[in-house]
Amino acid sequence: MSTSAEPSTSPIGRPLDRVDGRAKVTGAARYAAEVPLPDLTHAVLVGARVACGRITSIDASEAERQTGVLAVLTHENIGKIAGQPPLLPSLAGTVAPGETFFPMQSDQIHYAGQQVALVVAETYEQALHASRLVRVEYAEQPSVTVIDDARDQAYEPEAIFAGFIPGRAQRGDVAQALEQADVTVDNTFSYAANHHNPIEPSAATAWWEGDRLTLHDTTQGVTATQHTVAALLGIPHTRIRVVSHFTGGSFGAKAMIWHHPTLAALAARAVHRPVRLALTREQMFTGCGHREEQEHHLTLGADQRGRLTALRHHKLSLTSPFDHWAEPSLGVVGQMYACPHYEGAYHLIRANTMTPTFMRCPGEATGLFSLETSMDELAERLGLDPVELRLRNFAETDPASGKPWSSNGLEECYRRGAERIGWHRRAEPPARDGDWVIGLGMAASAYPVYGPNNPARARARVYADGTAVVQAAVTDIGTGVLTAMTQVAAEALCLPVERCRFEGGDTDLPHVAATVGSSGAGMVSAAVYAAATELRAQLVARAVADEGSPLHGADPDHVVVRDGRMMRGDAPDTGESYAELLRRNFLPDSEATGSWGPPPHDVPYAALTFGAQFAEVAVDPELGLVRVRRLAGAFAPGRVLNAKTARSQLMGGMIWGLSQALLEATHMEPNTGRWANASLGEYLVPVNADAPEVDVDFVDVEENLVNPLGVKGVGEVGQAGVAAAIANAIHHATGRRIRKMPITIEDLVVAPEA
Amino acid sequence: MRPVTYLLADDVEGAVRTVTADPDTHFLAGGTTEVDLLRQNVLTPHRLVDINRLPLTGIEALPDGGVRIGALARMSEVAEDRGVRERFPMISRALELGASAQLRHMASMGGNMMQKVRCGYYRDGESPCNKRLPGSGCAALTGVSRTHAVLGTSEHCIATHPSDVAVPLVALDARIHTRIHTRTGDGERDHAIGDFFLEPGDTPDREHPLAHGELITAIEVPGLPIARRSLYLKVRDRESYEFALVSVAAAVDMVDGVIGDVRLALGGVGTRPWRAIRAEEFLIGAPAIPENFEQAARIELSDARTTAMNAFKPELARRTLVRALETLTRDGSQR
């Protein structure tokens, strides 16, 4: 078939306003903790105040006596879970518990904040009040909560990520190559723990109708919630429906399925009424994972011309008592440059924290800081321009697999980013502006193109009034995916976007995996496109077969559709609309499904989304102040579905990179093993006044391999490399290399060690 | 549930009497501290007396060049008051750099003087804290203490005084007017701001010399020509909505390159808003040169006591103090 919309009217790529924007800003959009239900009850969690030990007693009697209290659930009365599902990334499309541990099953405490009781009451205030009256006594044991507590206990895991990523990877002989290198750069980096802090705290509303459970959850994947809760409760998938129409930001906090939806379901079963369970901001620090505290040791070897010969990258980080988890910091680092000898290895320490989890730009946000600040140092040592050094090490093919890239665009990204920031202005000594010294820095950026493990599906339906609805169980976590999929549906159906509606966020709809790892737009667009294209073909086929249709007998390959009207390509006056066809045949609608099976794992190409990051910072070296004045990023993410939302995502990622570079740190309280700054007042993220001018540029690349529409995703790559560009700019301004994140005032005020 | 009774006061005397009579009754003004801490179970009043209807608003320019600020004037109102801006730029600036726009619209000036410390161990409602629960110890001494005080500390408390605007007020010798009810009747008192903020010493729970129920009615700033040329310099990790790591309120009067008069106070480093008396004494009569600024800063910070996490603060305070003095004297202009 060659039926397609004319390029000039293509809805894909247009900067369409969000279809749900009005509902969100007017408050009409209902989030998981806003579902109005008769007889709704409210649950509040109680977290452990020690990091390691046993509960010796729980006295809930006073809490239970309070007005309105319906139940106090603890390990003594909540009942046992049916079984612990394995930890799998939610992109796998099946069970995805955040950790292979479920709370309130014994008296054992593994981490501070671990849920030890759940109070259910008629109102939220009653539950909150009673939750403070639950007396829990502990026998405390020594805990490990920071790397310095237990360096000697580090171990090398065989694999991380439930076996998906090997604990060690190598090519060539890195030791020998480093010995023979003309120049080496050898550094250790330390990165603070980070927490996501989406504006909407995690929450679930649960109710049972007989043996059927409905859950409204804050989640990146309704199917992931469905499968995980079903496994934990031991009930069939057919009896759980999970809905998530709106999710107020996630950034990985809701990528895995944490304990609250299951606990809400258990509570609802206990009180025989609907239960709403929302985490407090403080509980968000111990309720949905974090980016773990970590150290990197990275060594580069190069020849005199700056060509990399060796790269060794070791990571040491904290994991939980249950899982071998590390964010995958060694991924892109080993693929970024043509470097024959490479070794990467993860080292873990079991600690009294929950299992760490995905946090925006997982792995690469830290890995690329280590690599790209080291590259800056190498450029300095060799007297090379940092951009030139990177061009000299450009990888024509994937150094890890030897396969060609699906698409690239990196060199053009360097060129465009340099132009946008005015890289030619970078002078020695750096420019001054009063008390401020102006530094320029850059870094390469890249993020993997992940795909799901199982087919993504969608359903498309055109009604007899000529409007269409297209559905897939994708959740919009603020990215604009509902809007972008409306555009994809409109394009494939050849309908104006105003007559298309996209629905997601419900397990009653066709399955897609969780929208994680920048993969949502690529996999969902593939399914939506397939379903809508199939439906269009079905309608055209019906028309040419219908004796009552002006298109009767026409060659379907020569029927074109525009604005929902099918017509002969060679005689546009001959035709009819979808609506006319359906109404004449007394059909209420026409429907088709479509799916996209992801490529096998052994495809003959490698795929990364490439970009380049440039930063202009102002540093007041006396007072230790760093203020980012401009960020310029150029990215080659393949097909862009919506220019506005894609730009917003990239911009958000870039500002997050600034945040990680200069502000974000969760401090561990050394005496208690609790997070010390579990609030938005004390966990610093940028305010508007910190946000610089952000310049986002798209580099076009022809991408035909990763998925049908060539969408590589923009959720994370915006953040990759930004922090390194900022650190490199600080070095340009001050001559100081600060090998940690965040870089704070004291790092610049305290004199460097001799 | 822990019920809280709410009363809306319609006269000052009645409000003061009601609160005085009951240790578990608190005043409620802007509520930006009280309500937060009530929700966190740190403050547990049974009753709140809302004083927002009382006639304690208004900002009045005084004939001596000073200003009288009603206790219920909001931070944002004072910040944008033209008289304050002209006569006391350091006050306007300190207010503008404090909190967030939303908080500044809510928070009252009297409440600002009474705000509680930001120490996480005080605010979590359960860590050892001598300020919240005398005798329970101080978790900050060995805990996360990056933002804690280095001046005026004791072995019982190292919490930093959080106010921005109190720093210039201390530099300017403001006075705090109050209404009090005692057995002998109703009366007014007047506290020098230098005596108003207490160092923790052995009694960190005692933060002010006020009796329970004593109500701030106004803050009076005396006329002080030197303040027309003044600044407030605040150093912090991000540009807004964050307390000071270090701040400096400074005013300088120079004659022929020699410092005639100077007012200096530090925020973010002391257990109270810190008047830099020793630095002032050193500087008066001294040539306005960087060496003298550095020496003055060194003298003022010489008693600083630090933890491992806030060891950078004395150096940062010295540099900020020097920067403030340099900025004020940089163009060599004389008032």
List the helices and strands and how they pair.
The complex is a heterodimer of chains A (754) and B (335).
Chain A: H1 21-26, E1 41-47, E2 53-59, H2 61-65, E3 69-74, E4 108-109, E5 115-121, H3 124-131, E6 135-140, E7 159-160, E8 165-166, E9 168-171, H4 174-180, E10 183-191, E11 203-209, E12 212-217, H5 222-233, E13 240-243, H6 260-271, E14 275-278, E15 294-302, E16 308-319, E17 341-350, H7 364-382, H8 386-392, H9 410-421, E18 431-433, E19 436-448, E20 456-463, E21 468-471, H10 481-493, E22 500-503, H11 520-545, E23 559-562, E24 565-568, E25 571-577, H12 578-584, E26 589-596, E27 608-620, E28 625-636, H13 643-662, E29 693-698, H14 722-734, E30 740-741, H15 745-749
Parallel strand pairs in A: 1-14, 10-30, 12-13, 16-17, 21-22, 28-29
Antiparallel strand pairs in A: 1-5, 2-4, 2-6, 3-5, 7-8, 9-17, 10-15, 11-12, 11-14, 15-16, 18-19, 19-27, 20-21, 20-26, 23-24, 24-25, 27-28
Helix pairs in contact in A: 7-8, 7-14, 10-11, 13-14
Chain B: E1 5-8, H1 12-20, E2 25-28, H2 34-39, E3 47-50, E4 59-61, E5 67-70, H3 75-80, H4 82-87, H5 89-96, H6 101-106, H7 109-114, H8 120-123, H9 166-171, E6 175-182, E7 185-192, H10 193-196, E8 215-221, E9 230-235, E10 246-255, E11 258-267, E12 274-275, H11 277-283, H12 290-301, H13 313-329
Parallel strand pairs in B: 1-3, 2-3
Antiparallel strand pairs in B: 4-5, 5-8, 6-7, 6-8, 9-10, 10-11, 11-12
Helix pairs in contact in B: 11-12, 12-13
